[in-house]
Amino acid sequence: MSFLKELAWRFFLHEGPSKSAELAYFFLLSLFPFMIFLLTLIGYLPVKTGDVIGLIEQYAPEDTMSVIEETLNTGNRGLLSFGIIAALWSASNGLNAIVRAFNHAYEVEENRSFIMVRLTSLLLTAAMVFTILVALLLPVFGRAIGHFIANLDGTPEMFLAAWSALRWGISPLVLLVVFTALYFFAPNKRLSFKFVLPGAVAATAGWILVSMLFSYYVSEFANYSATYGSLGGIIVLMIWFYLSGMMIILGGEINALLHKRKIIPEENPRK
Questions:
Q1: How many separate domains does the chain show?
Q2: Any signal peptide, and if so, which residues (predicted)?
Q3: How many CB atoms lie within 10 A of CB 141?
Q4: Does residue 157 lie within any of the structural domains?
Q5: Distance between CA atoms of 232 and 218, rounded to whole angstroms?
Q6: Residue 20 domain-assigned?
Q7: What is the pLDDT of residues 222-238, one digit of tens each?
Q8: What is the residue range of 122's domain?
Q9: For residue range 236-257, what is the model confidence (pLDDT) as tens digits?
Q10: What is the value of pTM for the model shown?
Q11: For the range 226-234, what are the long-range contacts, defined as Cβ-Cβ under 8 Å and sequence gap of 24 or more?
């Protein structure tokens, strides 16, 4: 059986569409605690809320931005600053669903304790926040570093133009790091990086492509507000999350299939 044919067969065998819908539901529940928690931390850093919105706006469909911005502006950040654990717990629900989906892809039972699984989800959520913060801070400090180096080099315009072009690669790099961490730590399976990088690269490229195509479709052709009224933004957000869930699960299935096809000793589940 060809790789693509077997990949499609495994995706439907492991209930990929249903798992994607489950991920979309938990992503929706997790998004706003995650974003409010992120913005609470950003209050202590030289980063503006608009930078976070801009990072999301690169890929999010247009109709979803009003929903996200309204929720972020009305969220109780003061409460979450005193309840970081509660915010992280809520935000980690999506990661917890990903753990279950990846275990299904590798066809392994979850024998880690509830506390260990939750702790893994919490740590991955915190790692995602840290990675996003680094991505947001790079342009802030990068501009100062770029000006400093450009003045030393004596060709500021040329250097700054190259630096600006380089910054376009920050978002895909952040996604690649996040997906690699997910595929490595989330499943109850001991893996090496060579078995998680292909899926991480595929998920990164697939997610960016699907997000941009769906965003173009929503802005140019679809009119969900006419059909669903004020719920149009939520519907678009859920469809985007559903497509994102598909890309994440497909990346996991790619890694699991590559792992299965390699002739290597059977590895023990994580204890």
A1: 1
A2: none
A3: 10
A4: no
A5: 11
A6: yes
A7: 777 667 776 777 888 88
A8: 3-137+171-261
A9: 888 988 999 999 999 999 999 9
A10: 0.76
A11: 232/63, 233/63, 233/64, 233/66, 233/67, 234/28, 234/67
